Amino acid sequence: MKYISEYRDPQLVKKYLHELFRVTTRPWTLMEICGGQTHSLVKNGLLDMLPPQINMVHGPGCPVCVTSVSVLDEALWLAQQPDVIFCSFGDMLRVPGSTQSLLHAKAAGADVRILYSPLEAVQLAVENPTKEVVFFAVGFETTAPANALSVVQAAARGVANYSILASHVLVPPAMEAILGDPDNLIDGFLAAGHVCTIMGTTEYDPIAAKYKVPIVVTGFEPADLLQGILMTVSQLEKGTYKVENQYARMVAREGNAMAMKAIHEVFDVSDRMWRGIGSIPESGYEVKEAYKQYNARVKFNIHLPVREEDPDCISGDIMRGHKKPVQCPAFGGRCRPEHPLGAPMVSSEGACAAYYQYKSSVCS
Amino acid sequence: MCLAIPGKVIAIHEGEDALFRKGKVSFSGITREVSLCMVPEVALGDYVLVHVGVAIGVVNEEEAKQIFSYLEQMGDLEELL
User: Which distant-in-sequence residues (6+ apart) come within 8 Å of A151 by Cβ?
Assistant: First the structure.
């Protein structure tokens, strides 16, 4: 496919690896934020090819992994209400809440449907006027415009039986939470490419300056990742800490104005609880008061007790970069993709699932 | 989750309302209807980045080539220094 396959060219990958070995003289710890990047790094065996001084740790950039148990319990509660069609992206279905997953609820008779796009959920609401259609609006900044657009389109079409359960999370506050930790190990970041397609790169300038870390906006294919790592390590070796953009074919400095307009139309910035990490101030989006009739929390007046996650899951340590999945006592034993204790084992973008699937290359 | 795939715009359906502007996008032959409301600048034949049914950006063709010349440029810069 154009704009994908050429970035998987083994010769190009070799050139970047060669240069990376040439410039790396000291140990560096880099974090890739996005779970898609984690998956690509592990799947393509890149972790084994890097210079041994480079330690890649895997950040909290998988929305499936960081959606809190309490929000999953809200989703389960909604799915079990009469006359509700509960719609979700497929990878949220197996994530365990405090008692069960959406897949369990579906097996027990709840009308839970997997959709590709929130815009399909609006159409489903039009076609089922006697039902309430709720979309599980998870995701980072990348997904927020589409979820916002579904609300704006529903409002414009006068669709009253549609609402969203918003659980949006934002990247920059999570990076600040990691960098502000006194035990922080991270020397440089690969920022998440598609998040920056929406938001641009300017919000990273103050973070790079405040914490003196290079931040390189990076794509997802093997050559993209190696170029991003090379740009980050080159800065570290030189002692600079700028924001650079490896992924300029998809990311403009100013982002996508129409997408940001949709976000600001529908959402306010709010505090958000991150699974495995805890509450981070101003790190999420919640539906604005003006659109409260599309906010499932308001519409269904949800008030559930706050539950804790499984104490054996060390996902918080993994997502902060303190531990690797293979250092978890439950990894591959009590916790497996078919029976996950925590969310990083559920989504293919979760660090634990990526290690489990391709572990022969990383456990050796 | 943030997976987004580039595809070629092969049809644009201009409606009366820009909020509902849609088009057909081909991903190496597999086609899908996609919202184009967030890429008002898009033209037929452009490549767009599609995420959950919405085009979120137009591929910058010039920038797409830089990865192939970056190492040579780095080498040239070092020679100058």
Answer: A162, A164, A266, A287, A291, A294
Angle at A27 (CA atoms; ends A21, A29), nearest 5 degrees:
105
Q: How confident is the model at residue A338 (pLDDT cuts 50, 70, 90)?
A: confident
Q: Report, as an integer, the average pLDDT of A177-192.
A: 94
| Alpha-carbon distance values, A160 to A123, A299, A351, B20, B27 (Å) | 12, 11, 39, 18, 34
- Rounded to a whole number of angstroms, the distance from the CA of A262 to the nearest CA of chain B is 9
Q: What is the pTM for the complete model shown?
A: 0.93
Cα A112 to the chain's mean position, in Å? 22
Do the chains contact at A62 and B1, CB–CB below 8 Å?
yes
- Looking at this protein, which amino acid is placed at residue A95? V
CB-CB under 8 Å, A249 with B59: yes
Q: State residue A35's pLDDT score.
A: 92
* Residue B40 to chain A, least CA–CA distance (Å): 8
Residues in chain B: 81
- Confidence band for A364, pLDDT divided at 50, 70 and 90: very low
Complex ipTM more than 0.85, yes or no: yes
Q: Radius of gyration (Cα) for chain B, nearest Å?
A: 17
User: If residue B72 lies in a helix (H) or strand (E), which one and from where to where?
Assistant: helix B66-80
Element (H, E) at A59: strand A54-61
Q: How many CB atoms lie within 10 A of CB A326?
A: 13
Instruction: Copy the structure tokens of residue A179.
Output: 């960098």
| Distance separating alpha carbons of residues A91 and A101, to the nearest angstrom | 11
Residues 6+ apart with CB under 8 A from B48: B6, B7, B9, B25, B34, B36, B39, B42, B55, B56, B57, B58, B59
Q: Helices in A157-256 by DSSP H: which ranges?
A: 171-179, 193-199, 205-211, 222-238
Task: Write the secondary structure of A342-362 as one string of H (helix), E (strand) and C (coil).
Answer: CHHHCCCCCHHHHHHHCHHHH
Contact yes or no for A258 and B63 at CB 8 A: no
Cα distance between the two ends of chain A: 33
B51 DSSP assignment: E
- Say yes or no to pLDDT of A229 above 50: yes
Rounded-to-integer distance, Cα A104 and Cα B50, Å = 31
